[in-house]
Amino acid sequence: GEEVAQTPKHLVRGEGQKAKLYCAPIKGHSYVFWYQQVLKNEFKFLISFQNENVFDETGMPKERFSAKCLPNSPCSLEIQATKLEDSAVYFCASSHPDSAGGYTFGSGTRLTVV
Amino acid sequence: QQPVQSPQAVILREGEDAVINCSSSKALYSVHWYRQKHGEAPVFLMILLKGGEQKGHDKISASFNEKKQQSSLYLTASQLSYSGTYFCGTRMNRDDKIIFGKGTRLHILP
Questions:
Q1: Closest alpha carbon within chain B to A108
Q2: Domain that holds residue A20
Q3: Which residues of chain A does B96 touch, with a Cβ-Cβ cutoff of 8 Å?
Q4: Among the listed residues A11, A3, A19, A16, the one whose alpha carbon sits nearest the alpha carbon of residue A77
Q5: Backbone angles phi, psi at A25, to 5 degrees
Q6: Across the interface, do B98 and A101 touch by the CB < 8 Å criterion?
Q7: Which of A51, B36, B67, B79 is 20 to 30 A from A27 (CA-CA)?
Q8: What is the domain range of residue B83?
Q9: Model confidence pLDDT, tens digit, residues B44-65
Q10: Nearest CA to A20 among A64, A91, A70, A76?
């Protein structure tokens, strides 16, 4: 399809619970990026993939966050033992290798940790 | 490394023009502009590549001054639909992640 599909749209978790977010990139887009957008609207980069390989994970809080992009499956972002500060909208974006790197964003997953 | 956007916020009347600026202290490969409306995903507007260029799309255009590492987004004869937060993003090289500025909130009054 021509859209980046993110699921679920909303997710509510109690502090300490696990959260798992999914992203299906546009077919043919070999790059996938995850960003966290918090209330001040700033985008914090988390991790990027080139196909199923981690390309850049400099933004990931490694102790609780993990991500995967496996062949023929949506990409996933998992947060173990969520904290209140993880409440944010998580956006996934994909880009085509020939597009000079412009992103198509998914509609985001709003995670609320209570 | 985060690009600096200015102004932080703009209020205009319909039909007025606006300029949003984006500057970086590092040499850039590309500058990207996105618009995000409240509760929605960012929408791609345009990319400008190093080499210095200007692009236009309807009444929205942008320029990239490679010498100064500055880009400007121009909105002419603004429409109500232009309201939202505009983000510039910068890339240091072709495959790098985009680093976004803090955004410029644009509000258009009828």
A1: B41
A2: 5-113
A3: 56
A4: A19
A5: -70, 170
A6: yes
A7: B36
A8: 4-109
A9: 998 998 766 666 667 899 999 8
A10: A76
